[in-house]
């Protein structure tokens, strides 16, 4: 369907409850259909989370007006931006969106000031001057306004790009992996600054990321995007800690997925015969127990010692241990051939050796029982 562009946004009755509602289907470069189903309240930040290539950036571009969906509807603050039924498609310049590109897309030959005010070229000079001063102060860009954008650091470039996105007083902020271009120390510092800034300006924002730390730090709500589909939405902690199915668990970073049989409401038997007692129930005999690597504890296990029969501890053999800075990632082979991944602080123990007998204790409060 060919859509016409609407000169103005249309305010619709009954749409005032959310800052953003978006339900649409889009395709990108003849790829699979991408299905979005999003809601966002005023002042909140929504995270689009999921593996790379899942369609997150396409959804962001559709919200901005840079990519037209095939069908569906997008409204923001009561204004209809896209509606396939009425052939409405408001152009990007009339949506009032602030967009922070993944690579920031600054003009390196222009000054920081010129980059920030680029979208305000038709505004009065005194207005541009006041807005520039306010944003320089808000984003701590003092002393950089006259410098060429190609001469600033990565962290400074991120703040310049964010200032440019805020300069036009947008209805909605769209940030595409805003911290991915930064080194790890800078990313950690900017993460806290960005959260504080989003709270201060109070503009609803949608952020694309596949990093869990950024999701917890920046988001109020989370939409999980897997293979082009919005598979789960809700408050960040609810979605991150309670995947609805196996694909969601994999996308959310549950390293360990253990096939099991439910033998009682709180008892599950693994393939090798070991049993786990978990405070959860799941209809059906065959299940999968999902748990993240950081929710397992590792202890040496002397040969001949019995494994504690507490329903939370499993015995196995170390296959390899990989240092990851302050953490150690250890893989443990169970008697049935299943491999568990355990992530523990390196300072807590001597790195285990391949072939070493160990016990792995599960935090039952962090285990999720899913349909197989």
TrEMBL record:
Keyword field contains Nucleotide-binding: yes
InterPro entries, A to Z: AAA+_ATPase (IPR003593), ABC_SmlMolc_Importer (IPR050093), ABC_transporter-like_ATP-bd (IPR003439), ABC_transporter-like_CS (IPR017871), Mo/tungstate-bd_C_term_dom (IPR008995), P-loop_NTPase (IPR027417), Transp-assoc_OB_typ2 (IPR013611)
Gene3D superfamilies tied to this protein: P-loop containing nucleotide triphosphate hydrolases
Record keywords, A-Z: ATP-binding, Cell inner membrane, Cell membrane, Membrane, Nucleotide-binding, Translocase, Transport
Annotated PROSITE patterns: ABC_TRANSPORTER_1, ABC_TRANSPORTER_2
Signal peptide: none
Pfam family, one: TOBE_2
Domain ABC transporter: 3-252
One cellular component term from this protein's GO annotations in UniProt: ATP-binding cassette (ABC) transporter complex
Molecular function terms, GO-annotated: ATP binding; ATP hydrolysis activity; transmembrane transporter activity
Presence of the UniProt keyword Translocase in the record: yes
PANTHER family named in the record: PUTRESCINE TRANSPORT ATP-BINDING PROTEIN POTG, SPERMIDINE/PUTRESCINE IMPORT ATP-BINDING PROTEIN POTA
Name the UniProt record assigns to this protein: Molybdate transport system ATP-binding protein
């Amino acid at each position: 369907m060919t859509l016409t562009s609407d000169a103005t946004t249309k305010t619709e009755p009954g749409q005032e409850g959310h800052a953003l509602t978006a339900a649409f289907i889009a395709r990108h470069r003849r790829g699979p259909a991408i299905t979005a189903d999003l809601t966002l309240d005023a002042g909140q930040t929504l995270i689009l989370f999921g593996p790379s290539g899942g369609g997150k950036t396409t959804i962001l571009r559709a919200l901005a007006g840079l990519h037209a969906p095939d069908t569906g509807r997008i409204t923001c603050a009561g204004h209809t931006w896209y509606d396939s039924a009425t052939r409405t498609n408001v152009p990007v310049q009339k949506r009032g969106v602030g967009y922070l590109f993944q690579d920031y897309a600054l003009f390196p030959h222009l000054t920081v000031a010129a980059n920030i005010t680029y979208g305000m070229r038709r505004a009065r000079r005194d207005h541009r001057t006041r807005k520039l001063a306010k944003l320089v102060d808000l984003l701590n860009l003092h002393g950089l306004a006259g410098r060429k954008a190609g001469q600033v650091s990565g962290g400074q470039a991120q703040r310049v790009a964010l200032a440019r996105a805020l300069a036009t007083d947008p209805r909605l902020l769209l940030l595409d992996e805003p911290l991915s271009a930064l080194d790890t120390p800078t990313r950690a510092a900017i993460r806290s600054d960005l959260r504080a800034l989003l709270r201060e300006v109070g503009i609803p924002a949608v952020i694309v990321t596949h990093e869990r730390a950024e999701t917890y730090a920046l988001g109020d709500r989370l939409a999980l995007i897997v293979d082009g589909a919005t598979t789960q939405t809700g408050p960040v902690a609810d979605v991150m800690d309670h995947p609805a199915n196996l694909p969601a668990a994999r996308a959310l970073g549950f390293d360990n997925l253990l096939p099991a049989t439910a033998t009682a409401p709180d008892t599950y038997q693994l393939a090798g015969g070991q049993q786990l007692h978990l405070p959860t129930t799941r209809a059906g005999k065959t299940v999968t127990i999902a748990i993240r690597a950081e929710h397992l504890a590792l202890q040496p296990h002397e040969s001949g010692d019995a494994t504690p029969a507490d329903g939370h501890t499993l015995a196995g053999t170390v296959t390899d241990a990989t240092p990851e800075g302050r953490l150690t990632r250890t893989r443990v082979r169970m008697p049935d051939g299943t491999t568990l991944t355990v992530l523990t602080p390196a300072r807590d123990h001597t790195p285990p050796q391949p072939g070493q007998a160990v016990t792995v204790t599960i935090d039952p409060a962090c285990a999720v029982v899913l349909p197989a």
